[in-house]
Design brief:
The structure holds 2 protein chains of 2 kinds. By secondary structure, chain A is an alpha/beta fold. Chain A contains 13 helices and 8 strands. In chain B, 27% of the residues lie in helices and 33% in strands. The radius of gyration of chain B is 15 Å and the shape is globular. The chains are: A alpha/beta, B alpha/beta.
Chain lengths: 290, 188
């Protein structure tokens, strides 16, 4: 296997058990780091505001990315539009630690994702089922996250996607080896990746939860469902007391199996982000990029 | 033998698997109660040092852990674990447990594009794989610290009495040399 790809998968291993937080400026990045974020996602607008603003949303201004890189010592990630390999080239030139080829931004290509094998920096991509996850990995993604439904504060889609992926993995495990060829055809995924899933009962890369996580309980729910860590987007800086909520979610992810700790950290966090549910929104971001 | 692996954040499962391969009973430590269990050694894994230290403090584990290490509990720190142990971190405004007489440089090889894999000699033995992920290195060490490995003139593995620290990740390879060395430290 390509050495750079291996190192990139290994960086994701170091992020496990952690919380990656969306931030829109250097000050928020510092708050996130102090609250215990294991990485930050630099973007101009958090998903809830992208939803509210409408229009086309794009990669962040490199100046903003650089300011955030200068403000923290933890890894800095940033988003590019699906298929927009030039935005990815720009972020690579900024020496970003991870690129999120994200359905949160407006897609730049309705058919093709970025050929991520052509880059030295790692990519994380969203997936709502096993087929999408393995297709993104075959394109070079070094980390996967559920799509969920970003900017809603509604965890239901992240739960659906995580349960679906885990369920499909169990199904693949139960197949005979000679049935994997047809399954690979059905899912439109490479046979070798499916064989890995069959043998090890997991994706060949780290798998985080994302899209709608708003409370410590949401984060712990995703961990108990098999996530290896959590992205929190709008949930933190759209809430009443971001620093406190961020620190509480970090503790909830570490102690996801300990209801006493969860009860303690859930206490008196101020107002959670105002959620909207999927029936109230016109745009399902999870339907972008299959 | 029973070894605890600090499991607040990061690549702790990888260390558990290495210990299992060596036939050692390994358990995870996520809270004060688990930290207070009987153990023959503890591993501080790779991950983000700022996250682990914040959680050590918030979960009231920092003081006890520091006490255990100072009193002689065999301790192995890899990457972020090394930073947790270092007395000084030259390019960062605070340091953490400060139990090991070394000055470390955080993110010494730069961002993820600076991560690399190489072969190196540990304790003058034959070459083994070293994996560096946004790694630190050691700039200075005190007189009681023994240098165990260098890469390109930079110190990347050290021992001070009961503490062993590596800037690289032995748990990301199939090579058991470093973990075996740690077990030998415990046995002696």
């Amino acid at each position: 296997m390509n050495e750079r790809y291996q190192l990139n998968k290994e960086l994701a291993q170091m992020l496990k058990g952690g919380v990656i937080m969306d931030v829109t400026n250097a000050e928020q990045a510092k708050i996130a780091q102090e609250a215990g974020a294991c990485a930050v996602m630099a973007l101009e607008r958090i998903p809830a505001d992208i939803r509210a603003a409408g229009g086309v949303s794009r990669m962040s201004d490199p100046k903003l990315v650089k300011e955030i890189q200068a403000a923290v010592t933890i890894p800095v990630m940033a988003k590019v539009r699906i298929g927009h390999f030039v935005e990815a080239q720009i972020l690579e030139a900024l020496e970003i630690d991870y690129i999120d080829e994200s359905e949160v931004l407006s897609p730049a290509d309705n058919i093709y994702h970025i050929d991520k094998t052509k880059f030295d920096v790692p990519f994380v991509c969203g997936a709502k089922n096993l087929g999408e996850a393995l297709r993104r990995i075959s394109e070079g993604a070094a980390m996967i996250r559920t799509k969920g439904e970003p900017g809603t504060g509604d965890v239901v889609q992240a739960v659906t996607h995580m349960r679906l992926i885990q369920g499909e993995i169990r199904n693949v495990q139960s197949l005979r080896e000679d049935e994997l060829f047809n399954k690979a055809k059905e899912l439109s995924v490479p046979h070798d990746l499916l064989k890995y899933v069959h043998e090890f009962g997991k994706l060949p890369v780290v798998n985080f939860a994302a899209g709608g996580v708003a409370t410590p309980a949401d984060a712990a729910l995703m961990m108990q469902l098999g996530a290896e860590g959590v992205f929190v987007g709008s949930g933190i800086f759209k809430s009443g007391d971001p620093a406190k909520r961020a620190a509480a979610i970090v503790k909830a992810v570490t102690n996801f199996n300990d209801p006493k700790v969860l009860a303690k950290v859930s206490e008196n966090l101020g107002e959670a982000m105002v959620g909207i549910n999927e029936q109230e929104i016109d745009l399902l971001m999870a339907e972008r990029g299959k | 033998m029973r070894i605890g692996v600090l499991a607040l954040q990061g690549a702790f499962i990888e260390h558990q698997k290495m210990l299992e391969k060596l036939g050692v009973d390994a358990f995870t430590i996520r809270n004060l109660k688990e930290l207070n269990q009987e153990m023959d050694g503890i591993i501080l894994p790779g991950g983000e040092s700022t996250v682990m230290y914040k959680l050590l403090k918030d979960l009231n584990m920092e003081k006890i852990l520091k006490e255990k290490i100072t009193r002689g509990l065999p301790t192995m720190g890899t990457c972020a674990g090394l930073l947790l142990l270092a007395k000084n971190i030259h390019n960062y405004d605070t340091s953490f447990l400060q139990t090991m007489d070394i000055t470390a440089k955080k993110n010494a090889y730069g961002k993820q594009l600076g991560s690399f894999r190489t072969l190196g000699k540990f304790n003058n033995q034959e070459n083994i794989p070293f994996v560096f992920i946004r790694a630190p290195y050691i700039e200075n060490c005190g007189k009681d610290v023994k240098v165990l490995a260098e890469v390109d003139g930079k110190i990347v593995a050290v021992r001070e009495n009961n503490q062993l620290a590596t800037a690289f990740h032995p748990e990301l390879t199939n090579d058991l040399t470093i973990h075996k060395y740690f077990l030998d430290m415990i046995k002696k």
